[in-house]
Amino acid sequence: MPARTVGHAILRGLRAEIDASQSAVEEAMAQHGYGREALFAVRLALEEALVNAIRHGNRHVPGGQVDFRWSVDGDEARFEVRDQGDGFDPDAVPDPTHDDNLEIPSGRGIMLMKAYMSEVAYRDPGNHVSMVYRRSKDA
Amino acid sequence: MANDSSRLRISAVNDVVRIDFVDRDILDEATIRQIGQDIQRRLEPMSAPKVLMCFAVVEHLSSAALGTLITVNSLVKKKGGMLRLAEIRPEILEVFYITKLNKHFSIDESAAAALKALA
Protein backbone atom coordinates (compact mmCIF):
# COMPACT_ATOMS: atom_id res chain seq x y z
CA MET A 1 0.00 0.00 0.00
CA PRO A 2 1.39 3.45 -0.89
CA ALA A 3 2.15 5.85 1.95
CA ARG A 4 -0.32 8.24 0.40
CA THR A 5 -3.21 7.56 -1.98
CA VAL A 6 -4.35 10.39 -4.23
CA GLY A 7 -7.26 10.85 -6.59
CA HIS A 8 -8.65 13.37 -9.04
CA ALA A 9 -11.96 13.50 -10.84
CA ILE A 10 -13.90 15.95 -12.94
CA LEU A 11 -17.59 15.72 -12.13
CA ARG A 12 -20.22 16.98 -14.54
CA GLY A 13 -23.16 16.51 -12.24
CA LEU A 14 -24.13 12.88 -12.61
CA ARG A 15 -25.05 10.86 -9.55
CA ALA A 16 -22.86 8.01 -10.79
CA GLU A 17 -19.82 10.32 -10.74
CA ILE A 18 -20.44 11.24 -7.12
CA ASP A 19 -20.92 7.59 -6.18
CA ALA A 20 -17.72 6.58 -7.99
CA SER A 21 -15.72 9.30 -6.24
CA GLN A 22 -17.18 8.35 -2.87
CA SER A 23 -16.31 4.69 -3.48
CA ALA A 24 -12.73 5.52 -4.44
CA VAL A 25 -12.25 7.62 -1.30
CA GLU A 26 -13.91 5.01 0.90
CA GLU A 27 -11.72 2.26 -0.50
CA ALA A 28 -8.56 4.29 0.05
CA MET A 29 -9.54 5.21 3.60
CA ALA A 30 -10.35 1.60 4.41
CA GLN A 31 -6.97 0.53 3.03
CA HIS A 32 -5.29 3.07 5.29
CA GLY A 33 -7.15 1.63 8.26
CA TYR A 34 -9.80 4.26 8.92
CA GLY A 35 -12.80 2.98 10.84
CA ARG A 36 -16.51 3.02 10.25
CA GLU A 37 -17.01 6.31 12.08
CA ALA A 38 -14.47 8.04 9.84
CA LEU A 39 -15.99 6.59 6.68
CA PHE A 40 -19.44 7.78 7.73
CA ALA A 41 -18.17 11.28 8.52
CA VAL A 42 -16.25 11.70 5.29
CA ARG A 43 -19.02 10.28 3.15
CA LEU A 44 -21.54 12.67 4.62
CA ALA A 45 -19.28 15.74 4.34
CA LEU A 46 -18.21 14.86 0.79
CA GLU A 47 -21.81 14.33 -0.25
CA GLU A 48 -22.69 17.81 0.94
CA ALA A 49 -19.62 19.44 -0.62
CA LEU A 50 -20.01 17.78 -4.02
CA VAL A 51 -23.76 18.32 -4.24
CA ASN A 52 -23.37 21.95 -3.15
CA ALA A 53 -20.79 22.46 -5.90
CA ILE A 54 -23.03 20.93 -8.56
CA ARG A 55 -26.32 22.36 -7.37
CA HIS A 56 -25.49 25.77 -5.92
CA GLY A 57 -22.08 26.40 -7.52
CA ASN A 58 -22.57 25.29 -11.09
CA ARG A 59 -26.37 25.47 -10.75
CA HIS A 60 -26.68 22.29 -12.83
CA VAL A 61 -25.53 24.28 -15.88
CA PRO A 62 -24.87 21.85 -18.76
CA GLY A 63 -21.13 21.52 -19.25
CA GLY A 64 -20.41 22.76 -15.75
CA GLN A 65 -17.56 20.92 -14.08
CA VAL A 66 -16.53 20.27 -10.52
CA ASP A 67 -12.85 19.61 -9.90
CA PHE A 68 -12.43 17.11 -7.08
CA ARG A 69 -9.00 16.23 -5.69
CA TRP A 70 -8.24 14.14 -2.66
CA SER A 71 -5.47 12.41 -0.78
CA VAL A 72 -5.42 9.92 2.05
CA ASP A 73 -2.58 8.74 4.25
CA GLY A 74 -2.35 7.17 7.67
CA ASP A 75 -2.86 10.47 9.47
CA GLU A 76 -5.41 12.41 7.49
CA ALA A 77 -7.68 12.62 4.47
CA ARG A 78 -7.72 15.88 2.50
CA PHE A 79 -10.29 17.04 -0.04
CA GLU A 80 -10.52 19.92 -2.48
CA VAL A 81 -13.79 20.67 -4.26
CA ARG A 82 -13.87 23.51 -6.77
CA ASP A 83 -16.84 24.52 -8.89
CA GLN A 84 -17.15 27.05 -11.74
CA GLY A 85 -19.71 29.27 -10.07
CA ASP A 86 -19.39 32.79 -8.76
CA GLY A 87 -18.89 31.63 -5.21
CA PHE A 88 -20.70 32.75 -2.07
CA ASP A 89 -20.10 33.97 1.45
CA PRO A 90 -20.39 30.94 3.73
CA ASP A 91 -20.65 33.24 6.76
CA ALA A 92 -23.87 34.68 5.32
CA VAL A 93 -25.66 31.32 5.52
CA PRO A 94 -28.16 31.52 8.40
CA ASP A 95 -27.58 29.25 11.39
CA PRO A 96 -29.92 26.32 10.66
CA THR A 97 -29.93 25.30 14.34
CA HIS A 98 -31.48 28.58 15.46
CA ASP A 99 -35.05 28.01 16.65
CA ASP A 100 -36.39 30.39 13.99
CA ASN A 101 -34.70 28.39 11.23
CA LEU A 102 -35.48 24.81 12.26
CA GLU A 103 -38.45 24.58 9.89
CA ILE A 104 -36.48 25.82 6.88
CA PRO A 105 -35.85 22.77 4.68
CA SER A 106 -32.43 23.84 3.38
CA GLY A 107 -29.12 25.25 4.60
CA ARG A 108 -27.71 22.38 6.69
CA GLY A 109 -24.99 21.11 4.35
CA ILE A 110 -22.17 23.40 5.46
CA MET A 111 -22.84 22.89 9.16
CA LEU A 112 -22.76 19.11 8.67
CA MET A 113 -19.46 19.39 6.81
CA LYS A 114 -18.02 21.43 9.70
CA ALA A 115 -19.43 19.05 12.30
CA TYR A 116 -17.94 15.94 10.74
CA MET A 117 -14.61 17.18 9.39
CA SER A 118 -11.57 18.40 11.35
CA GLU A 119 -11.21 21.45 9.10
CA VAL A 120 -13.41 23.14 6.52
CA ALA A 121 -12.21 26.28 4.75
CA TYR A 122 -13.73 28.19 1.84
CA ARG A 123 -11.38 30.10 -0.41
CA ASP A 124 -12.40 33.34 -2.05
CA PRO A 125 -14.70 33.84 -3.82
CA GLY A 126 -16.30 30.83 -2.17
CA ASN A 127 -16.30 28.35 -5.05
CA HIS A 128 -13.49 26.25 -3.59
CA VAL A 129 -13.74 24.34 -0.34
CA SER A 130 -10.91 22.48 1.39
CA MET A 131 -11.69 19.84 3.97
CA VAL A 132 -9.49 17.74 6.22
CA TYR A 133 -10.37 14.69 8.28
CA ARG A 134 -7.64 13.92 10.84
CA ARG A 135 -7.11 10.45 12.26
CA SER A 136 -7.32 11.83 15.80
CA LYS A 137 -11.01 12.46 15.12
CA ASP A 138 -11.43 8.73 14.40
CA ALA A 139 -11.41 7.75 18.06
CA MET B 1 -52.13 0.47 0.26
CA ALA B 2 -50.10 0.27 -2.87
CA ASN B 3 -46.58 1.54 -3.03
CA ASP B 4 -46.12 4.94 -4.64
CA SER B 5 -42.40 4.70 -5.00
CA SER B 6 -40.02 1.81 -5.28
CA ARG B 7 -37.92 3.68 -2.74
CA LEU B 8 -40.67 3.46 -0.11
CA ARG B 9 -42.81 0.76 1.39
CA ILE B 10 -46.09 2.31 2.48
CA SER B 11 -48.58 0.39 4.57
CA ALA B 12 -51.55 1.02 6.86
CA VAL B 13 -51.39 0.05 10.50
CA ASN B 14 -54.88 0.75 11.82
CA ASP B 15 -55.24 4.48 11.20
CA VAL B 16 -51.51 5.10 10.86
CA VAL B 17 -49.70 5.50 7.55
CA ARG B 18 -46.42 3.65 7.99
CA ILE B 19 -43.62 4.56 5.61
CA ASP B 20 -40.49 2.42 5.49
CA PHE B 21 -37.45 3.46 3.50
CA VAL B 22 -36.07 0.57 1.49
CA ASP B 23 -32.67 2.03 0.53
CA ARG B 24 -29.57 2.20 2.70
CA ASP B 25 -28.69 5.58 1.22
CA ILE B 26 -31.02 8.56 0.88
CA LEU B 27 -28.68 10.83 -1.02
CA ASP B 28 -29.67 11.26 -4.64
CA GLU B 29 -31.46 14.55 -5.21
CA ALA B 30 -33.89 13.22 -7.80
CA THR B 31 -34.77 10.25 -5.62
CA ILE B 32 -35.28 12.46 -2.59
CA ARG B 33 -37.53 14.75 -4.61
CA GLN B 34 -39.53 11.75 -5.79
CA ILE B 35 -39.85 10.43 -2.24
CA GLY B 36 -41.13 13.80 -1.06
CA GLN B 37 -43.66 13.99 -3.88
CA ASP B 38 -44.88 10.44 -3.25
CA ILE B 39 -45.40 11.08 0.46
CA GLN B 40 -47.12 14.41 -0.12
CA ARG B 41 -49.41 12.89 -2.75
CA ARG B 42 -50.34 10.13 -0.30
CA LEU B 43 -51.07 12.54 2.55
CA GLU B 44 -52.70 15.31 0.54
CA PRO B 45 -56.29 13.93 0.62
CA MET B 46 -56.07 12.97 4.30
CA SER B 47 -57.16 15.06 7.25
CA ALA B 48 -55.20 14.87 10.51
CA PRO B 49 -52.95 12.09 9.18
CA LYS B 50 -51.00 9.93 11.61
CA VAL B 51 -47.70 9.09 10.02
CA LEU B 52 -44.83 6.84 11.07
CA MET B 53 -41.56 6.93 9.15
CA CYS B 54 -39.14 4.07 9.79
CA PHE B 55 -35.43 4.32 9.05
CA ALA B 56 -34.30 0.83 10.07
CA VAL B 57 -32.26 0.17 6.92
CA VAL B 58 -31.01 3.72 6.35
CA GLU B 59 -27.25 4.10 6.74
CA HIS B 60 -26.68 7.47 5.10
CA LEU B 61 -28.81 10.50 4.47
CA SER B 62 -28.05 13.97 3.23
CA SER B 63 -29.17 17.44 4.21
CA ALA B 64 -31.52 17.31 1.21
CA ALA B 65 -33.24 14.30 2.78
CA LEU B 66 -33.56 16.21 6.05
CA GLY B 67 -35.17 19.01 4.08
CA THR B 68 -37.77 16.64 2.66
CA LEU B 69 -38.56 15.33 6.16
CA ILE B 70 -39.08 18.92 7.33
CA THR B 71 -41.42 19.59 4.41
CA VAL B 72 -43.42 16.43 5.16
CA ASN B 73 -43.60 17.36 8.85
CA SER B 74 -44.88 20.83 7.96
CA LEU B 75 -47.58 19.32 5.75
CA VAL B 76 -48.66 16.89 8.48
CA LYS B 77 -48.78 19.67 11.09
CA LYS B 78 -50.73 21.93 8.74
CA LYS B 79 -53.32 19.18 8.44
CA GLY B 80 -53.51 18.78 12.20
CA GLY B 81 -51.84 15.38 12.09
CA MET B 82 -48.87 13.77 13.75
CA LEU B 83 -45.56 12.51 12.38
CA ARG B 84 -43.17 10.29 14.32
CA LEU B 85 -39.80 8.95 13.23
CA ALA B 86 -38.50 5.60 14.46
CA GLU B 87 -35.77 2.97 14.23
CA ILE B 88 -33.05 5.48 13.44
CA ARG B 89 -29.50 4.14 13.65
CA PRO B 90 -27.25 5.85 16.20
CA GLU B 91 -25.00 7.49 13.59
CA ILE B 92 -28.03 8.90 11.76
CA LEU B 93 -29.60 9.98 15.03
CA GLU B 94 -26.44 11.97 15.70
CA VAL B 95 -27.15 13.95 12.52
CA PHE B 96 -30.53 14.91 13.96
CA TYR B 97 -28.86 16.05 17.18
CA ILE B 98 -26.13 18.02 15.41
CA THR B 99 -28.73 19.86 13.36
CA LYS B 100 -30.99 20.12 16.43
CA LEU B 101 -33.77 18.57 14.39
CA ASN B 102 -34.35 16.23 17.32
CA LYS B 103 -36.24 19.23 18.74
CA HIS B 104 -38.32 19.54 15.59
CA PHE B 105 -39.30 15.87 15.20
CA SER B 106 -40.86 13.33 17.53
CA ILE B 107 -38.41 10.43 17.51
CA ASP B 108 -38.97 6.97 18.97
CA GLU B 109 -36.54 4.11 19.35
CA SER B 110 -38.90 1.51 17.92
CA ALA B 111 -41.83 1.41 15.52
CA ALA B 112 -43.90 -0.17 18.28
CA ALA B 113 -43.25 2.79 20.58
CA ALA B 114 -44.13 5.23 17.80
CA LEU B 115 -47.37 3.41 16.99
CA LYS B 116 -48.28 3.45 20.67
CA ALA B 117 -47.67 7.21 20.80
CA LEU B 118 -49.77 7.72 17.67
CA ALA B 119 -52.70 5.61 18.99
Spell out the blueprint of helices and strands.
The complex is a heterodimer of chains A (139) and B (119).
Chain A: E1 4-11, H1 15-31, H2 36-57, E2 66-73, E3 76-82, H3 109-116, E4 119-123, E5 128-134
Helix pairs in contact in A: 1-2, 2-3
Chain B: E1 8-13, E2 16-21, E3 25-26, H1 29-43, E4 50-54, E5 60-61, H2 63-78, E6 82-86, H3 90-98, E7 106-108, H4 111-118
Parallel strand pairs in B: 2-4, 3-5, 4-6, 6-7
Antiparallel strand pairs in B: 1-2
Task: Using brief descriptors, characterize the structure shown.
heterodimer; A: 139 residues; alpha+beta; five-stranded antiparallel beta sheet; 25% strand; B: alpha/beta; Transcription Regulator spoIIAA; five-stranded mixed beta sheet
Give a description of the structure:
The complex is a heterodimer of chains A (139) and B (119). Chain A has a single domain, classed as Heat Shock Protein 90 (2-Layer Sandwich). With 139 residues, chain A is an alpha+beta fold. Chain A is built from three helices and five strands. Helices cover 34% and strands 25% of the residues of chain A. Chain B is α/β, with parallel strands linked by helices and 119 residues long. Chain B has a single domain (8-114), classed as STAS domain (Transcription Regulator spoIIAA), CATH 3.30.750.24. Chain B is 40% helix and 24% strand. Chain B contains four helices and seven strands. Chain B has helices at 29-43, 63-78, 90-98, 111-118; strands at residues 8-13, 16-21, 25-26, 50-54, 60-61, 82-86, 106-108. In chain B, the strands form two sheets. A five-stranded mixed beta sheet of chain B has the order 1-2-4-6-7. In chain B, helix 1 packs parallel to helix 2 (63-78). The longest helix of chain B is centred in the middle third of the chain and has 16 residues, at 63-78. Chain B is globular and about 30 Å long. At the A-B interface, helix 2 and helix 3 of A face helix 2 and helix 3 of B.
